[in-house]
Amino acid sequence: MEFECLARDGDARLGRLRFARGSVETPAFMPVGTYGSVKGLDCADLLASGSQMILGNTLHLALRPGVEVISRFGGLHAFMGWSGPILTDSGGFQVMSLASLRTIDDDGVTFRAPVDGRLFRLTPERAIAIQEALGSDVLMVLDHCPPYPATAGEIEASIARSTLWAARSCGAHGEGSGALFGIVQGGVDIPSRLRSFEALKPMAFAGFAIGGLAVGEPARERLAVLDALKTVLPPDRPRYLMGVGKPADLVAAIMRGVDLFDCVLPTRNGRNAHLFTTRGILRLRNARYRSDENPIDADCPCLACRRLSRAYLHHLDRVGDPLALRLLSLHNLTYYQMLLGRVRQAIREGRLVSLAKDFEALEEST
Amino acid sequence: MEFECLARDGDARLGRLRFARGSVETPAFMPVGTYGSVKGLDCADLLASGSQMILGNTLHLALRPGVEVISRFGGLHAFMGWSGPILTDSGGFQVMSLASLRTIDDDGVTFRAPVDGRLFRLTPERAIAIQEALGSDVLMVLDHCPPYPATAGEIEASIARSTLWAARSCGAHGEGSGALFGIVQGGVDIPSRLRSFEALKPMAFAGFAIGGLAVGEPARERLAVLDALKTVLPPDRPRYLMGVGKPADLVAAIMRGVDLFDCVLPTRNGRNAHLFTTRGILRLRNARYRSDENPIDADCPCLACRRLSRAYLHHLDRVGDPLALRLLSLHNLTYYQMLLGRVRQAIREGRLVSLAKDFEALEEST
Questions:
Q1: Residues A318-331: tens digit of each pLDDT
Q2: CA-CA distance, B12 to B150, in Å (whole number)?
Q3: Would you place residue B95 in the very low, low, confident or very high pLDDT band (cuts 50, 70, 90)?
Q4: pLDDT digits (tens, 9 = 90+) for A104-159
Q5: What 8-state DSSP symbol labels residue A176?
Q6: Which of B56-86 are b and which e, b meaning 16 or more Cβ less than 10 Å from the residue's Cβ?
Q7: Is the backbone peptide bond immediately before A245 cis, with ω within 30 degrees of 0?
Q8: A322 vs B contacts (CB less than 8 Å)
Q9: Cβ separation of B311 and A65 shorter than 8 Å?
Q10: Whole-angstrom Cα distance, residue A45 to residue B351?
């Protein structure tokens, strides 16, 4: 992987990530393909939405269908038919999100599989080995993501363990495999964040992720962390804010130097008929849309907006047709990718502040 | 609507139905779009499957979203974005299938809506008015479909009422609207079937449907009815066997002069990972497919077979991804349309008997 910064606008960066499997213009948003699919969407839909790169969940894929199945296909790309780059997480987020289903020690973490109760062990080395077997273009180190709020002791312990695991991940990472990113932890405590980064800095990471955010903290605390990190993170390497977020959160983070995002929001909200549009949020289950002949968003090029009305999509959702899940997820994802495209254009033209202001005004009006 | 018979092979007919909205080569299979969508498939999928014409359910659409909503769009075609011909049923089948939710008298039938308990009244005139508002290319008369098995008295009463309603439907049918088909009833009693047809014969129907089959009767009784009717039904008008059926049932009916079919089987079975292939039935939930790198059917041109493996589709079904519903429905529907295409070609070339034999051998081997 190579990263090139093409333009700057304030702290925002327009960049390009080059992979053997193609280039990604940054800032970029990766839809979440937990089980080797972005729910309800096929690969042609993902391309049509403007998605350049997707995310897969290592722990979930290791449980179903299992690494041995995906290995037969030579990796996740061939298994799911996606030819663009893939980033895989490490299972570190599930250390927090599946807290009641795991035990952790300094060597690694043991999960109880949510579906069948099977025990599954992840160590830093095993997380790397699985991601290499998946053929990931970007691998993440196994980390220990603390909850929010966390005590000073919990944050301290999480950093110590994450640093140790990052070093072991580096050691386990093979030459020929994808790029490896480190993950900065430290909760919303700025000195802890800086200490976590300092510990990772000497290691040979191709990029840095900011983990442990989007876990319930107020936006201003999240932005304070980004403000503190933007000056210390190496400018020649990509920065990935994990699990964020709403459209406004993306814009605010981009203005603080973030290049990569992933989030389930556009697809999960789409499945619940909660739609993002250039005129604000549209809750399609509202009875007012029952006979509305307009498209969801006249400015959106997605399949649903080009061909179908709010009334028809409201109806599909109401009768429980799985086609609604697809079309509404596709719409929201297209909205996200259009927004990122507009942001990249604004950075190129040095007018991101102005775009952000218009965007804030829209957010407040809805 | 115009019907032209292009070739015959035994009693089988190769034909063409001409509508203002395009032509349909017969024998043809119509996927079932109960609520203005074939579950999980968009219109591009329907076209890709080879579907030329689809079916909509009058009663279901009248309940959700309601005729007034669809009327705003000028009809069902614009509402759902389907530009090919549409046939609508009349609600007569639901007289039987929703028997516990309706009361019937000589004037019409009152349904209790399954979803919200609302009462909904259908008369022959109202069934026609709704179908005209939907903009159907082929309208069906309201009929009284008896259950199977039925007593001689039940069959007699059903024919009497269906004949009366057919005449009222003819009277209600407007000049400028779509083609109107009569429906022959009579259970599996041949004399009753012939009597039902004789009563409908003088009325101005553009085609004839054979109703009240595919309701649990043995195949040989169904085929006996078709054998009896094939010599009396007018050769210059299309014949539609309602609600049938399995691939072998279609072939057997085509050999007895049937031109049109509809059935939920390919899509419903698809959603349950029960797949039709040129090598027989494939139950994709079987663990043997967990790491099978082959496509469902190497001879199938559908999106799933061109791009994806059995293992991946097995996995999508297992994790409950709605994408599985779409891809597996699309596969089965493509299988049906390919089969109909092969049948049409065989009729053209006078070798339907030979194709049917190969097909029976395949059925028996799986």
A1: 999 999 999 999 99
A2: 30
A3: confident
A4: 999 999 999 888 899 999 999 999 999 999 999 999 999 999 999 999 999 999 99
A5: T
A6: bbbbbbbbbbebebbbbbebbbbbbbbebbb
A7: yes
A8: 39-40, 322, 325-326
A9: yes
A10: 41
Shortest distance, CA B307 to any CA of chain A (angstroms): 7
pLDDT score at B184: 98
Identify the structural domains of chain B with CATH numbers, from first to last. 2-263 (3.20.20.105), 264-366 (no CATH)
Return the amino acid letter for A157. A
Threshold 0.90, pTM exceeds: yes
User: In this predicted structure, what is the pLDDT of residue B362?
Assistant: 85
A274, pLDDT greater than 90: yes
- Tens digit of pLDDT for each residue in A89-104? 999 899 888 888 899 9
Q: Decide: A57 and A63 in contact? Cβ < 8 Å.
A: no
- Tell me the nearest-neighbour CA distance from B326 into chain A, angstroms: 8
ipTM over 0.90: yes
Q: Are A358 and A346 in contact (CB under 8 A)?
A: no
Determine whether the interchain pair B322/A326 forms a contact, defined as Cβ–Cβ distance below 8 Å.
Answer: yes
List the catalytic residue out of B143, B262, B297, B317: B262
Could you tell me which chain B residue has the CA closest to the CA of A287?
B65
* Residues of A with Cβ-Cβ distance to B322 under 8 angstroms: 39-40, 322, 325-326
Residues of B in contact with A318 (CB under 8 A): 64-65
Distance from CA of B270 to the nearest CA of A (A): 13
Asked if A322 and B327 come within 8 Å (Cβ–Cβ), the reply is no
Q: B262 catalytic, yes or no?
A: yes
Q: Which residues of A are catalytic?
A: 89, 262
- pLDDT the model gives residue A114: 85
